[in-house]
Amino acid sequence: YPEHSYIIKRRIAFVIDHWAAQVDESFQKETYEILIACLNDCDLVVRVNGAAAIQSLLEDFDFNSGRYLQFVKPSVEAIIGLVKDMSGSDTTCHILKILGIIISELGEQIRPYMSLIVDCISDLWRCSLNKKMVLSSIISIFSRLVEVLIGGAAELESVLFPVLSMSCDPKHSENLYILEEGLN
Fold first, then answer.
1. Interatomic CA distance for residues 12 and 159, integer angstroms
2. Which residue, of 32, 72, 109, 169, is most buried by count of CB atoms within 10 Å of its CB?
3. Does residue 99 contact residue 144 with C-beta atoms inside 8 Å?
């Protein structure tokens, strides 16, 4: 690749993000492939822009989960990898929001990727105990998983109980920021 190709990749993801509603159905496969490549790029800004573009496509009124299913695994894996590489709380929260949107849009179809998601956010929970914004986003992800996994939330009990007990403990004033999310 040319030395400054990351600039072009950033702009491609940016343009897709802003024109998501205009992407014709016949180009969606190629669009998802381009964004997966962006999510796996070595440049962090390209990856974040790729994630933002995925979000825009998922939030589009005409989103069809059937066309996205073949890209769920690579996009979830790449987004989880991006979450692991983040250092700032704001960006981490934004990327977790995108993961939550994927969960909400796919509903029960997210089940095959549940263990991958739960393992990642459980690790992130342990590493982020002093980052209340991130903890709030993680609780939101768990909440979305419970909502979409009809009759399957029992699989999450071993992970959810410690999270809920910490977030809903009124004795710890530092947990007030995550108390509302935990109660939801």
1. 38
2. 32
3. no
Q: Among 39-43, 87-91, 176-180, whose mean pLDDT is lowest?
A: 176-180
In angstroms, the CA 179 to CA 118 distance is: 20
Lowest mean pLDDT among 60-69, 105-114, 150-159: 150-159
C-beta neighbour count of 165 within 10 angstroms: 10
Tell me the one-letter amino acid at 17: D
CA distance 71 to 8: 23
| Helix 176-183 and helix 157-167, axial crossing angle in degrees, nearest 10 | 140
> Contact 17/50 with Cβ under 8 angstroms?
no
pLDDT at 170: 67
pLDDT in tens, 1-26: 567 888 999 999 999 988 887 888 88
Contact in structure between 33 and 70 (CB atoms under 8 Å)? no
Q: What six digits make up the tokens of 124? A: 């992130």
- Per DSSP, the residues of 12-51 read HHHHHHHTGGG--GGGHHHHHHHHHHHHTSS-HHHHHHHH
**Secondary structure E strands in 85-127:** none
Contact 122, 161 (CB under 8 A): no
Q: Which residue has the tokens 């070595």?
A: 42
